Every structure is written in C-alpha cells, then in structure tokens.
Amino acid sequence: MSRSSAHEPPALVDVTLREGEQRPGRRYSAGQKVEVARQLDALGVDYVQVGFPVVGEVTAAVCAELDLDAKTTGIARALDGDVEAAIEAEVDVVDLFAPTSDRQRTQLLDCSREELLSRVHDAVDAAQDAGCEVHFSAMDGFRTDPGFLSRLVEEVDAEYVVIADTVGSRTPRGVEETLAAVGENDDLSHVGVHFHDDLGVATANALAAADCGAGRIDVSVAGVGERAGNTPLEQFVAACVAGDERTEVGVETDRLLPAARAVLSTLGESVPSSKPLLGEGAFAHESGLHTAAMLDDPATFEPFDPATFGGERQLLFGSASGAGAARGLLRRAGTEPTFERVSALLAVLDDADEDLPLGAAVELAESVANAEREATEAGERQ
Q1: In 3D, which of 185, 233, 172 has the Cα closest to residue 46?
Q2: Tens of pLDDT along 300-337?
Q3: What domains are defined for the chain?
Q4: Do 209 and 237 touch, CB atoms closer than 8 A?
Q5: How many CA atoms does the CB half-sphere of 107 hold within 13 Å?
Q6: pLDDT: is 265 or 295 the higher one?
Q7: Residues 266-270: what's their mean pLDDT?
Q8: How far is Cα 60 from Cα 89, in angstroms, rounded to an integer?
Q9: Residues 175, 176, 177, 183: is their CA dihedral positive or negative?
Q10: 0.90 exceeded by the pTM?
Q11: C-alpha torsion 188→111→49→86, nearest 10
C-alpha cells in the first residue's frame, strides 16, 4: 500500500507534554506547557496533547491561557470520570484510550471484547454530546487481534482511530501488514499511529505508516517520552522532506530545529551530542577528509543542507585536519596553498588549544600566509 500524492499531509499530534510527564520524576508547570504549546503552534503542528485532565487541574489551567490554531487534546480512559474531567478542562479533543490486545484487556480491565466496545461507544457518545472532537487510541493496538482491530477502526465513531505500539515492539514490515489488514479500500485517512522507540525504529515505523496513508502521526520533540521515547518530531519531518520516502508535511520546515530547541529549553530537557538533527555534533565536521571536500561541496558529506530545517553546519579545524583542508583554508584566505604554507598552517592547527570554526580557521590561514610573506620580505632586505 503506497501513499498517493493526492492525500492530504498527515495530521501531526505532538505528545511531548503528555509523554514527557509519564517519565519517573518529571512534571511540567502550567507556564511551561503554555509556552511550549505556543511554540509548537507557531511551528504548525495540528494538535498539541497537553496532558491527562483527570490527574489534576494543570490541563484546565493551560487551556484557559491558550488561543491556538492547533487543537489541544487531553487523554482520557473510557471512564465517565475521565471524560468529564477532559470536558471540564475545555480541551478541544478528548483523546480516549483503552487496552485492546487480549493480554492488556484481560490484565487491566478483565472484560470481554464486547464489553470493551460498549465502554468505548459510551465514552465517545459522552464526549461528542459535550461538543468535543473525539479521537480513540487502541492501546497495544499492534498486538491486537487483526479482526477485532478492524472492528474498532470501522465501528468507533471518532475523528481518528489510533493504533498504538504501546510496548515498542513493532517494525516497519509489521506496521505495513497491520495497516493493510485494517485499511478499508486502502483508505486510512481516519487511522492514526503512535509509536515508542524501544527498538530504535519509531521514525521508520512512522514513515511506513505515512507511506501507507495514515491520517494521523503522533510525534514528540527529540522523542521525549516514557522509556525509550516516541517518534521524534524533527526526525520524522526531516525524513519526510529530505529522505527517500517523501511525504508532504504541514509544518514550517525552516523553523523546525529552532522551534524544537526552544521547546527543549523551556522544558529543561537535554539531548546527547550525537542526537540526530538536534545534538551539538549533528552538523559538525572535523575529519580532514570531510572538511577538505566540504569546503568545495558541502553535499559531499551531508544528506541535506542543515539550513533547510533552520540548522547550521559547523566545519571545525584542528589537529585532525589534513593537507587538503589546509589547502582549502588557504584558498579561502585568497592565497596560494604552497607546500610551505600548508605545512606551517597544519603545525599551528596541531598546536591549537581547541578546534577552530571555519571563520577563525580562515583568519588563521591568512595570518600564516602574511607571516610567510613578511619573513620573505625581511630576508630580501638583508
């Protein structure tokens, strides 16, 4: 099943605020949530999942402060109290969920499939009667019996029925097989997906789902979420725009990385240096072979121009730089890269206390060339 260009871009539901708080010891204030929701709204996501209304009053306080183009969502179990709390919090969307795999359904609810369906229908009706948009997430949906999952997709009267990989056990082939099994006439526009990154393939899974035509994709900034996290917003968007599996997305791509960094800063979250797209080392190059080639053609060792997503490449020069990089720097400085100048520049770079960014390295190359000229002129005067 392949995504047609005629499909609308999938709706992006950012779950950073809700999933981030499900980690041990993490809580976000109402002020943090309001600021993050506004940052995500400016980026262009379709929905911001602000919390779990029944556990406290923060969600209501956040919604009272917001006026967004994006819709706010609050999760709720298929229980009267949860639905009422979401309605009272004045979220735009009541995002219902219930365990649908046989294992989770029996362990968590001890009810039959028919009883579960009845509970879900009642919860949907209650939320809709209050004027709310309703989504329904099939918890552990990718381990749910395909026949029962298909019934849920067909019978639950929700804007989206979301299939959740709650335990992070699915891989792209399994995603495609599941979506093919539930797709009615290959139309998955009202089906969503939610992935966890326990196997490190959440982005790949989301891309596979988008390629099948899934209408909703759950994402979080830097993958922030419980256990190994969720599908990273920035990775999914960048892969849709610059990867082989091209999919239209509705966000401001040139603001992607600045917005993601702003969200992380607001929440006090950090990422490893090697984190794709957001880590300090994501666009940094020092290897002599790399920097020498990239001075002439950055695409030699880049999959895309970082500026596409609001990022910036960083070429660094130091002890790891080779003759090719030194020649390139001297040319940038407007001077001939003679053997003597190359050797002198490499010696200075090798003795530097820290790696130099491109601008400073070019200035250093210029100073090395000037020093050689001055020495030559002084020798001629003697």
Answers
A1: 233
A2: 888 999 999 999 988 888 877 888 888 888 988 888 88
A3: 11-267 (3.20.20.70), 284-381 (no CATH)
A4: no
A5: 8
A6: 265
A7: 97
A8: 4
A9: positive
A10: no
A11: 120
